[in-house]
Amino acid sequence: MAKAFFRLQKFLRRTQFLLFFLTAVYLMAGSLLLLQRTRLVLQQGSRGTSANQALPDGMAGVGILDPRTLQDPRAGPRLLVGMDTMQEPALEQRHSPRWLMSRNSELRQLRRRWFHRSVSDQEPMQTTGLKAMKHTAEHTGAYVGCFSDDSREQTLKGAVFYDLRKMTVSHCQDACAERAYTYAGLAYGAECYCGNKLPATTSKPEECNSECKGEKGSVCGGVNRLSVYRVEELRAGARRRRNVIYRGCFRAPENLTDTFPASLIQPNLTVETCSEFCSKKEFPLAVIRGQECYCGYPTGHFSLHDGADGLLCTGTHNASGTAGGKYCLVYQTPVQDTRCTDRKFLTTKSKVFVALSSFPGAGNTWARHLIEHATGYYTGSYYFDGALYNKGFKGEKDHWRSRRTICVKTHESGRTEIEMFDSAILLIRNPYKSLMAEFNRKYAGHLGYAADRSWKSKEWPDFVNSYASWWASHVLDWLKYGKRLLVVHYEDLTRSLIPKLKEMVEFLNMTVTEDRLLCVENNRDGNFKRSGARQKDFEPFTQEMKELINRYILTVDEALKGRNFTGLPREYVPR
Questions:
Q1: DSSP label of 90
Q2: Family assignment (predicted)?
Q3: Cβ atoms within 10 A of the Cβ of 457, count?
Q4: Which pLDDT value is given to residue 106?
């Protein structure tokens, strides 16, 4: 009996060990299989991603991807455009509204991926100079102290700059000194304020405790606190005149002293003397009549809308200064018009969810700049763009559905995306200009120009083939699914800024004063003009491209008129 029991015990021990061994082998085999599958998926994903992401960054040989490739990563990126292997529908059907809208729904997900990829690619570029900046930055201005930042004060509000990643003390000092300001104040580690008057309330030094975003170990203010530096010695006086701009000859108002808050009478008055005087007083306009210098803003009495023949001002600057002069010379000083620069988030959630919709390159960012300065409220964005946040668009970091912004930028289309909004401002621009602007943005940023090699490469025709249809389908989708629309043509906005802007503000259920609109007009360009100038005769479009785009233009024009909107401006076609 004991012997049999011993054998049974021995067998059970062996079986237990065997089960343990088999379990271990099973788990190891499963782990290896899981790792192998994960590696395979990552390899497939990287191949698919490189094909999809080639459009914004390279676009070499890539047009519009067949939507089936998004579902099957093993399939190659077959093209819907420019491929002889694809069967094309009849020409009149291929450019019909129904064809464009169905095509748009296929491409929407891919475009969104392109856009987010393009935005995220900008972020690493912005950090490349941090290490160098840390070692080269020098504080050459005298530190004045820590002050309270009261939004009700107008001190240190002459110009405002933001840099979420690279703000340094010297960067802020240089920006303020270049615009002829005496003081530079930093707050929140990333915001720079300029002015000629110190804030009224001092604070404890330890309350300025925010480290500069681009310079470790340096203090850039704090929460509602400003680290203030004196910067007037940073630039030679000769450089201060660099930003003075001649605005023209205008008829002088009947009573100059009532129109302009500050004045100076001086023999042998020069443009530089008057501009320097008005800059120190923090006025954007310097007005010269003989030996008289006046400083102020554009107002209803002096709007700068009706310029006079320059010959009427001949001799005005060198005249003996008779008070009866009918005309005056007007110059724009480096000082920013601050009557419309104050902005904030809505104090209560908006009941109406409004979109500011456009095709990329149609001037959406510029329209946001105008709306924010006219209404005094931030605009939001469906995307996040760090470069735009640095330019003062604080709504970029706010969730796009928070309803704390006056409207939300979007390039999306399609029924689901459109019906999320209660109403929309639909901004339309000439597709020729839009395509060139978006191509420049993709390859040279918001303010640059794409290199000639990019225009001459295969990237450009592929870009036109894929994006031209998007321009048309974007408008058609919003016309079909938009609940309440205000159609604004970019060209009309540039020609008649104040009337069109007033129409946009009223659509947003806001009221605005005439002086504030004049301030917006005085700051109309903001920081959104591309540096340099493209030659006037630059023509990147081939005849085949023009024929394609012109068909889309006619389709959109007919759709607008069918919805009782004004058709496209005549300048769109022929080309």
A1: P
A2: Belongs to the WSCD family.
A3: 17
A4: 53
Contacts of 11 (CB under 8 A, 6+ apart): none
3-class SS of residue 489: strand
Cβ-in-10-Å burial (0-12, 13-18, 19+) of 312 comes to middle
| C-alpha span between 127 and 122 (Å, rounded) | 9
Contact at 8 Å (CB) between 289 and 322?
A: no
Residues 400-423 as b or e (16 or more Cβ within 10 Å = b): beebbbbbbbbbbbbeebbeebeb
Is residue 148 a contact partner of residue 202, using CB atoms and an 8 Å limit? yes
Neighbours of 466 (CB within 10 A): 23
pTM of the model: 0.71
Helix (H) or strand (E) holding 493: helix 490-495
Do the beta carbons of residue 303 and residue 498 sit within 8 Å? no
For the chain, what percent of residues have pLDDT higher than 70?
A: 70
Whole-number pLDDT of residue 528: 61
Question: How far is 271 from 274, CA to CA, in rounded Å?
Answer: 5
- Cβ neighbourhood burial of 213 (10 Å; 0-12, 13-18, 19+): buried
d(Cα 103, Cα 80) in Å, to the nearest integer? 10
3-state secondary structure of 427: strand
| List of residues 6+ apart from 333 with CB closer than 8 A | 180, 243, 244, 275, 278, 279, 283, 284, 285, 286
Looking only at Cα atoms, what is the longest distance across the chain?
136
62 pLDDT band (50/70/90 cuts)?
very low
Ramachandran category for residue 535: left, alpha or beta (phi over 0 → left; psi -120 to 50 → alpha): beta
- For residue 422 the two structure tokens come to 């209660």
C-alpha distances (whole Å) from 96 to each of 177, 563, 569, 575 are: 56, 16, 21, 21
Q: What is the mean pLDDT of residues 419-425?
A: 96
- In 3D space, the residue among 435, 440, 443, 458 whose CA is nearest the CA of residue 552 turns out to be 435
d(CA 194, CA 502): 30
Indicate whether 549 pLDDT > 50: yes
What average pLDDT does the structure give for the chain?
A: 78
The phi and psi torsions of 206 (rounded to 5 degrees) equal -70, -10
As a whole number of angstroms, the distance between CA 491 and CA 494 comes to 5
Of 131-145, 379-393, 425-439, where does mean pLDDT reach its minimum? 131-145
Assess contact for 304 and 247: CB atoms under 8 A: yes
Instruction: Establish how many alpha carbons lie within 13 A of residue 42's alpha carbon, considering only the half-sphere containing its beta carbon.
Output: 6
Greatest mean pLDDT range, 97-101, 179-183, 302-306, 315-319: 302-306
Contacts of 392 (CB under 8 A, 6+ apart): 160, 161, 162, 343
